[in-house]
Write a structure and sequence with these properties.
Blueprint: H1 6-15, E1 17-20, E2 24-30, E3 37-41, H2 49-70, E4 74-80, H3 89-102
Parallel strand pairs: 3-4
Antiparallel strand pairs: 1-2, 2-4
Helix pairs in contact: 2-3
Length: 112
């Protein structure tokens, strides 16, 4: 359920639809695998390794809790912004949920 190859990230960035929020941006692109996959991009601008890894763990947990209700065959790439380092878990979850709604992940309408 993860994107790992840089070419997969590039494909989502170039051909996908984007939601740009205060804490992070989410890019989405349909895949042929029939499953929802996540890729994370957390640069050094966000903070040191401890901060970046904590943020990655939080985003993966949020993704895992929201993905069963999404049910789409999509690749999602989340690019964290520096304000995300001070955001609470609830704030991250709210913005992630808002991003999925804006991208119409639940309606399978991304890329149409």
């Amino acid at each position: 359920m993860r994107l790992t190859d840089s070419s997969e990230f590039e494909k989502v960035y170039r051909q996908g639809t984007a939601y740009r929020g205060k804490l992070f941006s989410v890019h989405a692109f349909p895949n042929e695998l029939g499953t929802l996959r996540l890729g994370l991009s957390v640069s050094k601008k966000v903070g040191n390794a401890v901060v970046r890894n904590t943020l990655r763990r939080r985003l993966r947990e949020i993704f895992a809790s929201l993905s069963p209700e999404a049910g789409s065959a999509l690749d999602l790439v989340v690019s964290a912004r520096p304000p995300a380092r001070e955001a609470t878990f609830v704030e991250l979850r709210e913005e992630f949920s808002k991003a999925l709604a804006k991208l119409k992940v639940r309606d399978h309408a991304v890329g149409e």
